[in-house]
Amino acid sequence: MRRPRRSPSACAPARRRPASRSARRDRGPCGCGAGAVRRPRPCPPVGARSARRVPVPGGGAMAGVLRKTSGLVGLAVVENPHERLRILYTKILGVLQNIPKDAAYRKYTEQIINQKFNLVQTETDVQKLQDKLNSGHIEEVILQAENELSLARKMIQWKPWEPLVEEPPSDQWRWPI
């Protein structure tokens, strides 16, 4: 059975179909828009903890500006990146001690982490450290270190250095079959 057509009311002469459910809820009983009005949420306040002083390229009067954002969506400014990287690299090296010395993952990861760890210990300027690490913003480097720590812990569970339970088929890597 079809629903009867409603005649347009005086307050909504040209009624359009709203795009979403929330838009329908915001309309009044006759569809005019005089219903509940939703206001956008304000942005969270930027506190002193989310900013750090960063030298601006070129120096001058702006040499010690307060950097409030990383410029990357979803990555907040890290207050003390050197300390955070020291902690992460130390944890990664500690986790790698649980992997056999002849495992390829341990050898190459230890080599890379030791190089980065030495740079963090020797370079005090954040901008110069960013340039020497050559891995993007310092916040991205910290994210990479966190991901590497997570991977190292998973590698201990997976034990890829152990032999397979059963031999793979001899034509496993041949294509087409």
Automatic annotation (TrEMBL):
Principal location: mitochondrion
Keyword Signal belongs to the record: no
PANTHER family: NADH DEHYDROGENASE [UBIQUINONE] 1 ALPHA SUBCOMPLEX SUBUNIT 5, NADH-UBIQUINONE OXIDOREDUCTASE 13 KD-B SUBUNIT
Record InterPro entries: NDUFA5 (IPR006806)
Topological type in the membrane: Peripheral membrane protein
Keywords for this protein: Electron transport, Membrane, Mitochondrion, Mitochondrion inner membrane, Respiratory chain, Transport
Any one GO BP annotation for this protein: respiratory electron transport chain
Gene Ontology CC: mitochondrial inner membrane
Cell compartments where the protein resides: Mitochondrion inner membrane
Organism, as annotated: Falco tinnunculus (Common kestrel)
Family according to the record: Belongs to the complex I NDUFA5 subunit family.
Membrane-spanning ranges: none
Function comment: Accessory subunit of the mitochondrial membrane respiratory chain NADH dehydrogenase (Complex I), that is believed not to be involved in catalysis. Complex I functions in the transfer of electrons from NADH to the respiratory chain. The immediate electron acceptor for the enzyme is believed to be ubiquinone.
Known partners and oligomeric status: Complex I is composed of 45 different subunits.
Lineage of the organism: Eukaryota, Metazoa, Chordata, Craniata, Vertebrata
The protein's name: NADH dehydrogenase [ubiquinone] 1 alpha subcomplex subunit 5
UniProt superkingdom: Eukaryota
Region: Disordered, residue numbers: 1-55
